[in-house]
Amino acid sequence: MPTFFFDRWLSPSEWEQAVRITVTDGRIVDAIPNATRESGDEHHAIALPGLPNLHSHAFQRGMAGLAEHAEGSVDSFWTWREAMYRFVDRLTPDDLHAIAAMAQVEMLEGGFTRVGEFHYLHHAPDGTPYADPAAMAVALAAAAGETGIGLTLLPVYYAQSGFGGAAPTHGQRRFVYGLDGFARLLDASISAVSPLPDAVVGVAPHSLRAVTPTDLATLPTLTTGPVHIHVAEQMKEVDDCIAWSGARPVEWLLDHADVDPRWCLVHATHMTEIETERAARTGAVAGLCPITEANLGDGIFPAVEWQAAGGRFGIGSDSNMLIDATEELRLLDYGQRLTRRVRNPLAGRGSSGARLYRDALAGGTQALAAPGDAADFMTLDPNHPALVGRDGDALLDALVFAAGRGAIDGVWRRGRQVVAGGRHVSRDRIAERYRVTLSRLLA
């Protein structure tokens, strides 16, 4: 029964001093402030809960930087997608394991302690199902078991290539399922993650353009877990949805689905004021991925309006172009500053860093159905130059805006240390396997 003593600890509501924490079976069973340090306690100066990464496509870590050459006179999300299809063509389950483990190592080192894996790479390279329909999910679970990260697996349902039932393209052949096959995939996915402590399985209709209205109504009934969907990421998607239905994507979704706090609306970049207010009232979480959204030229989420409407949000690493929890928060905030030409637009009357961190923690925990008492936390280096002389919320301001992941010294998952001195305990071995895998794939 490990015990920890933190000089300063960020609880869900406030900073607490001299906190003694007891962990049993990976969960925090006691957190006593103003306590006395006892013999055998592991001591650290500053500790805070790890952040949930609510949206990841792990395999895309292997193509980071490979699509930064313009394809023709106008490069876009849609040309990037073709590059992604070319990369995904060659991946085996072993390849996915190697790439996902490397991504998860970087997530843990960067402050993420649980990942929501929006998993749509299901079939063999020729599009035929594996003998085990969850072979790729088994690879993701094996990576999580190796790295120690918490896993919320979100098997993706993908049935068409565009609004109105357009047939899937050749590049989508590894993603496509019908409802009966997908139900079997869900069962197999539950088995795949069963060896992992506190793993969760939800469901993910890929997007309104990739599922039929009938299937969208059925999918949430197949699980009691979270429901995630891409929506309104690109203006072309908005225009195509209007051409198909006469409504914008978020508008259509709210009119035709029972969106509630189980749901995570990933990106939701392009919303009107009315859509923003309606979506916020459902209690759904907005899944924001500012690094990827910037890289793909998606646009900037209306975070100030969402916040004013009482909306909840979490952050994700999405394409895993760059994996850094603090950078996601910083870019989210800076996007609002740049478009509005003001400072601290999301702070309310307090600290920007604290508001961003606490809101992303609460929203991500909800979106991933993560256990709230898991002993998932990180410690900060009190001697980092950006943290010197700071206390309370000023520590979070310094972490998000001045220090970044370089201030993260240690990370624990379920009370077990997985990052020490800023490095994952298995980084060298996992990184070497990743190098061998990528060298072969990109030869």
Can you give a write-up of this model?
The chain has helices at 77-88, 93-109, 135-147, 179-193, 213-218, 235-245, 249-256, 273-281, 290-295, 303-308, 325-340, 352-367, 393-403, 427-441; strands spanning 3-10, 15-24, 27-32, 42-49, 51-56, 112-119, 150-157, 200-201, 204-205, 227-231, 263-267, 285-288, 312-315, 377-380, 408-413, 416-420, 423-424. With 443 residues, it is an alpha/beta fold. The chain folds into two domains: 3-48 and 375-429, Urease, subunit C, domain 1 (Roll); 50-367, Metal-dependent hydrolases (TIM Barrel). The protein has an eight-stranded mixed sheet with strand order 3-2-1-4-14-15-16-17, with helices on one face. Strands 5, 6, 7, 8 and 9 form a five-stranded parallel sheet that branches. Strands 10-11-12-13 form a four-stranded parallel sheet. α2 packs across α14 (427-441) and α12 packs across α13. The longest helix has 17 residues, at 93-109. It starts with a strand and ends with a helix. The mean pLDDT is 96.
